[in-house]
Structure formats: structure tokens, C-alpha cells
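Minutes, project check-in
Item: structure for the 296-residue chain
Input as provided by the requester:
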Amino acid sequence: MKTQIRSRKDRECYPFILPAFIYLLVVVGYPIVYNFVLSFKNTNVKNLASGSSVFIGFQNYKELFTDPTFLLILRNTFIFTIACLAFQFTIGFLFALFFYKKFTFAGPIRGMILVSYMIPMSVTGLLGQNIFLNTGLINDLLSRIGITGPEWLTQTSTALIGVIIMNNWVGIPFNMLLLISGLSNVPQEVYESSSIDGATKVQQFFQITLPLMKDAIFAVLMLGFIYTFRAFDLMYIMTAGGPLNSTDVLATYSYTLSFTQYQFSKGSAVAVVLFLCLLIVGLFYLRLIVKGEEDT
């Protein structure tokens, strides 16, 4: 009887789910499928209007993975993502531990730090341009202590560093906010009991805080990876991928191929590579969640 009631209730839910499912199918599903199909053709500006593009299989992918420029951009994407994650998570965690403590002006200071996260990324990119100009803030501060700063955004050795710094400026408050939420779920009674048993602050951190925040930490790292790996607007505004592709990532390169060089199929192939990388990370995260639920 209970099974029949549950089955009937499930059927009653379908009409409410259907509009959202259709919307996602049209707005999200169709572009993804079309992009996959496009990546297996030779569509460019010459044959787009006539519809004379033909199926060429994996030729676009073969050309990409034998192209030194694409391999450099793939390398840039992983360096940018890993460097940002390392700094954002580490500094964000330190800020979370500090501002989780109750002291005077903790709330206002934390709110001021969050301002950089609330600023639109396009504005952050323009701000980064001005900060890292040859006569910008960074070089001005360096000159005051007798150091001649580099031409940050016009040298291949420093351009990516400038973009990473600006992305961290946005990402650190995001990590701090999520990790503070994770810290609030750790029972204070556990800390009090461990203090009675003689545990030090370092022991409490490694044996209580980190294990109990494992789910929150994984969530922050996975979200950070996804947001950072598909980044586009910051580097496009600050450097437009230059100089010499030193700040190009998969998202900017896909845009350049599709809407600057009008090689639509190659641009779609790069977007598919980006999608598959994020899909693998997402599936890995879901596997961890399922395994954690099974263990509990």
C-alpha cells in the first residue's frame, strides 16, 4: 500500500518537473549536443552560410593535440587553475579560521574583504589592468623601495602571474565565506572535550577541524576548480590572451578560434575538451560524495 502511495505521489510530481526539464533541454542540452556535432565537422566562415560543411571525424582533435599553441594553452589552463586553487584555498582557510573567532569588528572587516568578491569580474579585469600597468600601483610601490618593476602584462614571463593575482583577489573571499560556513558546523563540544584531554590547538586542527570539515573542503575545492578552469572574462579583459598566448586558456582560445578566426569547428573542439575536463572532475566529486554516504 505504501509503495502504491509513493508511486502515485511520484507521478504527481512529474508535471511540476516537466517545465524545468524542457527549459534545461532547450537552453542547456541542445547547445551542448550541437557543439559536440559541430566539433566533428569542418565548419568555418566560408561554408557556414551555405551549409556545405562535411563530417571529418576526429580531425579537429588530432590537429589540436599536435598543435604546440593548443598544448601551451592547455598547460596555461592547468597552471592557472592549480596556482589559483592553492593560494585561494590556503589564504581563504587562514582567513576563515581567523574571522570565525568572535572579536570586535570581526564582522565589518569580513564584510570589507567580501567586497572584492561582489565586484563584477569585468570591473576586476579593468582594475587589474590599471594596477599592473608600467606606471600602475604595483610598480609605483616597488619604485618606492628602489626596485624597478617589470612590464607585467606585456611580458610572457609575468603576464600570467598578474592574472593569477587578480583572480586570487576575487577567489580568497569566496573560499573564506564557504569555509566559515563549514567551521560553523563543527560542534564546539568536541573542542571543549579535547581541551580537557590536553589536546593542543595544532592537534585540534589536524585531528578535529580537518576531518570534520572534509566534505566542506572537497566542495570548496571542486567549486573552485570548476569556476577557475572555465575562467574567461578576467584574462580576456586584462590581456586578451597575450602576449604570445601566455595568458590564453581553453575558454579564451575557444572564443578566439570561433569569433576572431572564424574556425567554428575547431573552437567547438576546444570547448568540448574544456567540457570533458570539467565533466571528469564533476564525476570524481560525485563519486567521493557517494562513497562518503556509503561509509556513513
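Outcome recorded: The chain has 14 helices and no strands.
No further action items on this chain.
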